[in-house]
Structure to design on (508 residues):
């Protein structure tokens, strides 16, 4: 009861109710005094009293739900969110724009911003807005107070990157949103060799300004001291965001260049194995992809034989070689070592799906969804499996999560075809058919020759009932026979001669 009374007070409900009673009483007094002299009927006073009484609960409900602010009427923030703002340090890192003269460093800037987020999210006691939420402000003129309110944080880190040759200038400033005051700012004009020191220095100054404790163990190691290798790694991370065939190929190329410069760069080997696994499973029959994935996994195991990242790399290599049972075991070992390793849960689900293990894949996709609030792929891929299992409520629940996350990604990357085509599958489950078709068509418009775009569009048009369009998209799409065989979205097509011909053209 005491908590409820505190919440009534926080939401100003008691104040509004008292004010309403006073104003209502004054209205009744005025009506009682004036209605009879001006000739109004006797029931007029009764009507005023009834309206005043009926309006009291409505006033209380509106006071509970909304606040009147200088910016207008706004929804009252939850107590948890408000407590987080006032009692624990909170921060959002806005994307660092590319200020280089050639404007050719976007992927480097995105990678650098993401690395700063990785550094800061590892620090106990500091709440950091998710990557997707922060990146929704990319390329926009931003009112910092409005951004902080939307992201439910008290502080904003913003900056910019200017790169020329081996020189890099990084500006960064930490702002307290409520007062628009600068707690700290710095400009780093250095050789690219200092990029690691710049990241650590920014993190240290932020934590000093917020009076947090910084432990060395909190900072994730870049696992390389070669600045050029790290630059390639950042570019690879930037390319891997969209998930298209060409971007994945470019990401793999960047990670390959990183490990060529530094053969002990663990994280680059791990990401290389993952990208090669995707290429081998869905886009290309070239034997180089399984071979490169296996090499990457061997090197990860050489560098860190007991690390979850190494088992993740090994699982990706097994998947690239169509050894899905062994891939499942390797990814399961990764999540045993690190139970919150969301990407390992995601790839574990994929390995299970390739084997037709629908219930297990649902569980693993749900875990990936739980541990990564930016992951739109896992919930949207899981919707198909929920439907196959006959769980329509589960499909709708995960569709709602996935579509909302896809919308946030599209705020950041409006040309991300993967968010469009996976989101269209969720929208059709939510019975938003017109919008679903619009998203599917947009994905095809953006990248009509991309194999993954064509395949997922085939799944959409099958659900939509346009089987000829679905079969047109399915041709020249992904090459994974086991994924197609276990995808229930395509069940209505299985007896069609064109579908059988497509399936027969794929390797066993």
């Amino acid at each position: 009861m005491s908590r409820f009374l505190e919440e009534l007070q926080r939401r100003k409900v008691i104040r509004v109710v008292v004010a309403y009673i006073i104003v209502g009483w004054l209205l009744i007094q005025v009506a009682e005094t004036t209605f009879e002299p001006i000739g109004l009927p006797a029931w007029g006073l009764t009507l005023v009293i009834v309206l005043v009484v009926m309006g009291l609960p409505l006033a209380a409900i509106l006071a509970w739900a909304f606040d009147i602010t200088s910016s207008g009427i706004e929804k009252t923030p939850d107590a948890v969110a408000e407590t987080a703002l006032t009692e624990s340090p909170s921060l959002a890192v806005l994307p660092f724009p590319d200020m280089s003269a050639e404007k050719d460093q976007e992927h480097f800037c995105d990678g650098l911003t993401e690395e700063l987020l990785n550094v800061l999210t590892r620090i106990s006691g500091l709440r950091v807005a998710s990557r997707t939420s922060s990146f929704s402000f990319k390329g926009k003129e931003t009112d910092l107070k409005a951004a902080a309110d939307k992201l439910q944080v008290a502080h904003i880190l913003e900056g910019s990157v200017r790169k020329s040759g081996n020189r890099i200038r990084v500006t960064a400033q930490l702002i307290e949103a409520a007062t628009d005051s600068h707690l700290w700012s710095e400009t780093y004009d250095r050789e690219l060799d200092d990029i690691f020191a710049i990241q650590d220095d920014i993190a240290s100054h932020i934590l000093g300004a917020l009076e947090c404790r910084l432990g060395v163990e909190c900072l994730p190691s870049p696992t390389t001291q070669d600045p050029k290798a790290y630059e390639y790694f950042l570019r690879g991370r930037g390319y891997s965001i969209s998930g298209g065939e060409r971007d994945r190929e470019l990401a793999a190329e960047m990670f390959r260049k990183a490990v060529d410069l530094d053969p002990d760069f663990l994280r680059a080997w791990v990401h290389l194995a993952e990208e090669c696994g995707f290429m081998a499973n869905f886009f290309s029959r070239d034997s180089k992809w399984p071979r490169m994935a296996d090499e990457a996994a061997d090197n990860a195991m050489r560098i860190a034989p007991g690390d979850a990242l190494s088992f993740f790399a090994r699982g990706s290599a097994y998947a690239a070689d169509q050894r899905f049972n062994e891939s499942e075991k390797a990814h399961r070992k990764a999540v045993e070592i690190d139970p919150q390793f969301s990407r390992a849960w995601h790839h574990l689900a994929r390995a299970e799906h390739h084997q037709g293990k629908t219930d297990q894949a649902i569980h693993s996709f749900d875990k990936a969804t739980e541990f990564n609030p930016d992951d739109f792929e896992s919930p949207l891929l899981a919707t198909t499996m929920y439907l196959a299992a006959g769980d329509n409520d589960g499909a709708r629940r995960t569709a709602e999560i996935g579509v909302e996350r896809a919308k946030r990604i599209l705020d950041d990357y409006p040309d991300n075809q993967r968010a469009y085509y996976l989101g269209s599958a969720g929208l059709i489950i939510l019975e938003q058919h017109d919008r679903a078709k619009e998203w599917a068509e947009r994905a095809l418009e953006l990248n009509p020759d991309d194999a993954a775009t064509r395949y997922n569009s085939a799944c959409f048009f099958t659900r939509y009932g346009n089987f000829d369009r679905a079969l047109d998209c399915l041709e020249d799409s992904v090459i994974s026979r086991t994924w197609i065989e276990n995808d229930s979205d395509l069940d209505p097509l299985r007896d069609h001669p064109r579908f059988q011909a497509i399936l027969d053209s794929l390797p066993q």
In short: Residues 2-76 form one domain. The chain has a mean pLDDT of 83.
